[in-house]
Structure formats: C-alpha cells, structure tokens
Write a structure and sequence with these properties.
The protein is an alpha/beta fold. About 35% of the residues lie in helices and about 10% in strands. The strands form three sheets. An eleven-stranded mixed β-sheet has the order 3-5-4-8-10-9-14-15-13-11-12, with helices on both faces. A two-stranded antiparallel ribbon has the order 1-2. The protein has a two-stranded antiparallel ribbon with strand order 6-7. The longest helix has 25 residues, at about 425-445.
C-alpha cells in the first residue's frame, strides 16, 4: 500500500496556541495537561525537548495515575519500542525535518486496533482470549500514522470487545484492563467503548488518541471526558486490522483536547485502503481538514435541532442541566451568525426508540466478522478461533473473564445464534438505512435546507448517524452541577456526578466532515468550554517536560 502524506497548509501553524507555557530552569515548556500538537511541534522544532523526552514524560504521567493513586486504568499497556522509535524520529527530524505535524508525536491506540506483535504490544480488545495473539500486520490507520512519523505510545483500555459482549457490563470494563474510570469525579463512568482513549486524552497521558465507534463509542467518551471527537463517515478511515463489530457501522477516529488536533489526525488517517472495500468509495482527494478551522464558520449557516424524541426528557432521562446548557449553546450559535431552525425533526424519530433492526444487523455482522478476524491470526495461544470458542473460553476462565458482577456475555450468545446473511438480515440493513438516511438525517437536512443538525451528545443522539453510517463531530458543552443527583452506572462507577462533562454533537450526511469540523470549531473557539473545569486533583499527573529535560 503506497501512502501519500498530507501536505498541511502552513496556515494551521498560525492558529493560536491556547496555553501559557510552564517555565522550568528558564525554559518554557507546554503544560502536558492541555498541550496541543502545534505546541509540541513548536518545542520539538525549537529543540526545547525531544520526542524521547516527550515519551518519557507521558510514561511517567501514566505511571502516576493509571494503577496508582486514583487507579484510572486508562492504559492497558505501553509500547516497549516507543523510546527507540522516538530516538529514530528525533534523528530524522534533525537531518531531514519532520514528515508531518504528527512527526514524533505520541499516539495512544484503543486496544482493538492492531499493531504488529514484534513491536512488543498486544491487540486484544480487552479480552484474554486474544492475549499474545499475532496479527498479520498493522491496522490500516496505524500504517498511516507510522508513515506520518507518529509514535505508538501504547494501548488504551476499552469496554471489552467494544461493548459488544454483555448488556449488563458497564462502560470501560474489560477482563484485561479492569474498570476504567474518568478523571472529573472519583469513580465516574468514562463512557465507552473508547473509554481509556477518552480518559487518557482528557488529562494529558498522551498527545492524541484514536477510538472506534459503532454506535456512540467515540462520541460518548468524548462527551464524558471533555474532549473533541470525530466519528467519521463509515468508509473514510480504514477498519482493516480493527477487531470488528460491523463493517456497516464501525469507524475509526480521533479523540483529542481540541478540534485542531482532531483535524490534524483525521487528515492523516483518512483515505482509501485496498484492505477495506468501504474506503474505496470515498471522495478523493482526502481534504486537509485543518483548512476547515475557521472561527467564522457558523456565520450564515442553517443549523437544525431535531427536538422530537431526542430532547424529550421522559425518553432520554437527561438532567435539566444538559438541556439548559444546550439552549445556551443555540444562543451562542445565533450570536455567531447561524440561523437555528428549531424544530427540525427527523420523520423517523419515534422509530429509533422501538426499532430492533440495528441489533439484528450488528449481531449478524459480529459473528461473521469476528470469526474471520480470529481465523486471520497467525497465532493465538488461547486456542480461540471463533465466537463459539470465545464464549466457551470465558466460561472456562471465570477468574479472568467472569469475575463477580462482570459475568455477562448475552450479546455474544445472541450473536452466535444468528444465521448469517439471510433475507431477514438484508431487510433489516435496508430498513436501518431508510430509518437513518432517507427518513432520518437526510430528510431533515433537505426539508429545512440545513447545513447540519445538532444535539447534546448523551442519550440517543448517536443512533441515527450510526445506522446511517454518517459522521458526528463532538465538542464540550458543559458540566453537571454540584447538586446533581449521583447515579449508579455499574458495580464500580457512577453517572451523572458533579463536575462530570457532557458534550454536543454536530452531524449531517455522508462525508460532510469538513463542514462539520468548521461548525464545531467555530463553537469551540467562541466558548472554550473545555478550559472551564479541570479533573479532580488526584487524577491530574504532576510530571511535566521540564522534570524530564532537567531531571
């Protein structure tokens, strides 16, 4: 596969650098809690620190809070080859300059995104059934990251099998990684399934992260962890080498502290891959998404609010604070020159509450595609080679995969009972597309001549875009108040809770990422909501670059 690197416009470098650098022995270093890719590149280019220093600093920060202190369990493992990769990329920078804006930048991958075993890391989707398995090659997105000069820092914890194991299992739990929790309130639900990616990005355990989404798994952890997240159109980023749920809905995208960083990452990981046929239908060339980062992007745009069902408190169960923050956000968009069309309802809205076709499609796809993934492995010491083997493995190893309160695998069992791509499957898939596209998002956009739709990220927001295969771009919206009633989210987690973030998502039709990034960026820059609150003190790592450089 020949990879062509994005030639980024120098205009992105002119974007404002958000944080005041930390001074250490007279040298200014970016604060790693908030440091952007552009700030890090500025320091690397200027020689203030190296990529080796950066990897050491992130490793130290992970060590402080991952299995010690608040025990956030955001990272399953770190890359033993990361320091040698960083040294090589530092040398290349000094001799030839940087390959891209991700040259020498550490990236944490969700643990369902494959990396070659020779590097020293596992790819397990959080399951012991895949421990020490050997994949045939890097995932397609990892090939692009490496070609751009990125450093793979490690693997992030996740909801096991991307939350497609058991309905009773909480977000952020996996057999290998244990219960991941968020950093804004002790034991908070990080949401999932890209939970570790979200938590790690939220407090600067890495520069940027990748997650995957089938229905909500980038959007929800971005929302809960005060991040910018991009769930791309299905087929914009390769899923080759990603432990699958469904080729009809799976997608890979960035989760970062700013939309600028997310746009940089998406510009590199997007593009066709002969190992993923869906990507061969995307428009070419891949845009430079950083060109969408215009603060006036909302001016003159028409933004619709699909209020029916999705903003009904009796259906969503959302706290009034979320609704209040969303109404305030609509006012901000109006002040930025947007026309807010409210309501702009989806004709199919009520059907999302009762429709079961998504479940049928996902269950069927999962069995076929997971069996194919297991069969593709060069080696798998557990002996698991199919979904049926996986179910038996979990039952035979309860100390690893079925500890008390974490025994559920009803989704696996339901998937195993499916009968492949029969008439009922294709009927359900066609109905999903009609529901999400023809009578859903596309209908609302066309009826009201809209540029995009917008909703708070929690609840059912992700499902129309999920079944349609359409993109979502999420930015911070607000935080639960101190007097919110703390709820239980699982045996070890709570949600909602005081200080816990929630986000807002812009969405539209297929391959509308460029427009959506611009709209969300304009809102993000006008509000700077992420900076309004920080994680609780024990969850904020103290190690900074100055500690490494001046040791």
């Amino acid at each position: 596969m020949k990879l062509t690197l994005i030639s980024f416009s120098l205009a992105v470098v002119a974007l404002t650098l958000p944080q005041t650098p930390l001074a250490h022995h007279g040298t200014a270093f970016p604060d790693l809690y908030e440091a952007s890719v552009l700030e890090l590149q500025q320091g690397l280019d200027g020689g203030s620190f190296s990529s080796v220093d950066l990897v050491k600093a992130y490793f130290a920060r992970i060590d402080e809070v991952n299995l010690k202190g608040p025990e956030l369990r955001a990272v399953i493992e770190t890359n033993p080859s990361a320091l040698s990769q960083a040294a090589s990329l530092d040398k290349e920078r000094s001799l030839k300059g940087k390959r891209s804006l991700l040259h020498g930048i550490p990236v944490l991958l969700k643990d369902n995104i494959a990396t070659v075993a020779s590097e020293g890391m596992n790819t397990t989707a959080g399951s012991f059934s895949l421990l020490k398995s050997i994949v045939p090659s890097d995932a397609g997105v990892v090939k692009r990251l490496r070609a751009a000069g990125a450093i793979i820092l490690g693997k992030a914890n996740l909801s096991e099998f991307a939350h497609f194991r058991g309905n009773a299992l909480p977000s952020g739990w996996s057999g290998r990684g244990g219960q991941n929790t968020g950093a804004y309130f002790p034991s908070m639900d990080p949401c999932g399934s890209s939970s570790g990616s979200g938590v790690a990005a939220s407090i600067g355990l890495t520069a940027v992260t990748l997650g995957t989404e089938t229905d909500g798994s980038i959007t929800c952890p971005s929302s809960n962890n005060n991040l910018a997240g991009i769930k791309p159109t299905v087929g914009l980023t390769s899923r080759a080498g990603v432990v699958p749920i469904s080729s009809n809905q799976d997608t890979v995208g960035p989760m970062t502290r700013s939309l600028t960083d997310a746009a940089i990452v998406l510009s590199i990981i997007a593009g066709p891959d002969p190992n993923d046929n869906f990507t061969l239908a995307q428009p070419t060339p891949v845009p430079d998404y950083t060109q969408a980062l215009v603060k006036t992007a909302l001016n003159g745009k028409r933004i619709g609010v699909p209020r029916r069902v999705f903003l009904d408190p009796k259906i969503t169960g959302l706290d009034q604070s979320v609704f209040a923050a969303f109404e305030g956000a609509l006012d901000v968009m109006r002040q930025l020159g947007a026309t807010v069309v409210d309501p702009a309802d989806l004709p199919s809205a009520e059907e999302f509450v009762r429709d079961g076709n998504e479940t049928m499609v996902l269950d069927t796809d999962f069995k076929v595609e997971l069996n194919r993934y297991y069969a593709s492995l060069i080696e798998n010491p557990s002996g698991v080679r199919s979904l049926a083997d996986l179910i038996a493995f979990n039952d035979a190893n309860p100390e690893l995969e079925e500890p008390v309160n974490f025994t559920s695998q009803d989704i696996l069992i339901a998937s195993e009972a499916t009968n492949g791509f029969d008439d009922a499957y294709f009927t359900a898939l066609a109905f999903d597309h009609d529901l999400g596209r023809t009578r859903g998002i596309d209908a609302a956009l066309q009826a009201h001549d809209l540029d995009a739709l917008v909703l708070p990220s929690p609840a059912f927001t992700t499902t129309p875009a999920a079944v349609a295969g359409y993109p979502l771009v999420t930015v911070p919206l607000g935080f639960y108040p101190d007097n919110v009633t703390i709820g239980s989210a699982g045996p070890l987690t709570v949600y909602p809770a005081p200080n816990v973030p929630f986000g807002m998502s812009f969405f539209a039709s297929a391959f509308s990422e460029f427009e959506l990034v611009g709209l969300a960026f304009a809102y993000e820059q006008a509000t700077q909501t992420r900076l309004a609150k920080r994680a609780f003190d024990e969850a904020i790592p103290k190690t900074q670059l100055g500690d490494i450089v001046h040791g």
